[in-house]
């Protein structure tokens, strides 16, 4: 399909999805059985579907990790899962809940990520969000946070709202990051149809203190539990790139349209207390912030005090700077 016709389709589908979305916190969206909405991606027996057909266990051991993917591509929508992460020593372990079209557009793919980064015993899991548009992998848009709870103790809800103008990440219905499209971004805002993925895998080379702490398989298998999986958006035919169906939620109050005043207060409080890295303030990677960044002086000062090398004048104490894919250069300062 030509880019002109694809562009017309994308525009039409955006209108459909945005026109039916109602305002309010997420809540009672339909949860479909695994076999109706998802398919196994990899992992053999390391992926286990529970008896209710709506819960999935993904495990990582010495043989392999595991993962699943949505059967449909989606053009915008609301995507959510309740996730319980592995406990104890989890250094090097990465659990991901994300959207991507890398298999269809390997050179200019889009991606919207929740990445959960394990840690050594006694240290907490960290959550990383990241956004790529049109293959813009050289401009990492990572943010990293600690959480106000232990994500291995119980299930917690992690959600992504994706429209043609914004992306919002939620934890237990609290927005933790709002990413708005700007004219200066050009095509770097995710715009092409994507699938939803969930995976667990070995990220020993980078995930914990830049690879210093690796997966220790004496603690395997590492088990990540997923339930309450929500796929709520405009499904797209993978061949024709045409809309198969757009869920009608005109009367629903379950899907948010943005950040309310109360939610914004909660988001600002979360970021003040728990954000440990933002690419917008990284002076090692960027001499000046990327064009879409809106600098908050309070955030800038707090991060500068927290890590004056990364967020101050941008001078490394030792060695030469090298870019590391899918993880910030501040990992050594923020993970342990």
What's the topology here?
Layout: H1 3-20, H2 34-37, E1 38-42, E2 47-49, E3 56-60, E4 66-70, E5 73-84, E6 93-100, E7 111-117, E8 126-132, E9 143-145, E10 156-162, E11 166-171, E12 174-180, E13 195-202, E14 222-236, E15 243-246, H3 261-274, E16 275-278, H4 297-306, H5 308-313, H6 331-334
N-to-C terminal Cα separation, in Å? 48 Å
Task: Indicate the structural class.
Answer: alpha+beta
Order of strands, main sheet, comes to: 1-4-13-6-7-8-9-16
Count of extended strands: 16
Low-confidence runs:
1-25, 317-336
How would the global form be characterised?
A: globular
Mean of all residue-level pLDDT scores: 85
Radius of gyration: 19 Å
Order of helices and strands: HHEEEEEEEEEEEEEEEHEHHH
Characterise the protein shown here:
- Residues 312-336 are annotated as: Disordered.
- By secondary structure, the protein is of the alpha+beta class.
- It has a domain at 34-259: Sandwich (Jelly Rolls).
- The chain contains six helices and 16 strands.
- It has helices at residues 3-20, 34-37, 261-274, 297-306, 308-313, 331-334; strands spanning 38-42, 47-49, 56-60, 66-70, 73-84, 93-100, 111-117, 126-132, 143-145, 156-162, 166-171, 174-180, 195-202, 222-236, 243-246, 275-278.
- Strands 1-4-13-6-7-8-9-16 form an eight-stranded antiparallel sheet. Strands 2, 3, 5, 10, 11, 12, 14 and 15 form an eight-stranded antiparallel sheet that branches.
- The protein is globular.
- Mean pLDDT is 85; it is low at 1-25 and 317-336.
